[in-house]
Amino acid sequence: MYLGEVERGVRPPLKQKWWDDLIKAVPTLDRSAMDRLSASSRPLQLDLRDVPPKYQDLGMALARRIERQNISVRDFDRLSAILGSDPWLVADEPEKEPWE
Length: 100
What we know:
Strand content: under 5%
Largest sheet: none
Distance between the termini: 51 Å
Number of helices: 5
Structural class: mainly alpha
Order of helices and strands: HHHHH
Shape: elongated
């Protein structure tokens, strides 16, 4: 019941110090699911103050499209392929800067 309440935004997510105990108790639960529940229970914040304008534009454009949920399946698949399949992993540094 608690996880459903977290998913609906009724309760805040469980603190990370308790995740391992919960994962042991619920075999179908894993750290990735806990990360997703935790992240989706609060607004996403990006600090765009110290990044180049092209990164700012991209971040804002993507945030607007996600908020409106108006990214086509084709574009979604292309973006996912570019960004990688695991959103929780940090990508390597780009080979060159996109504004060059």
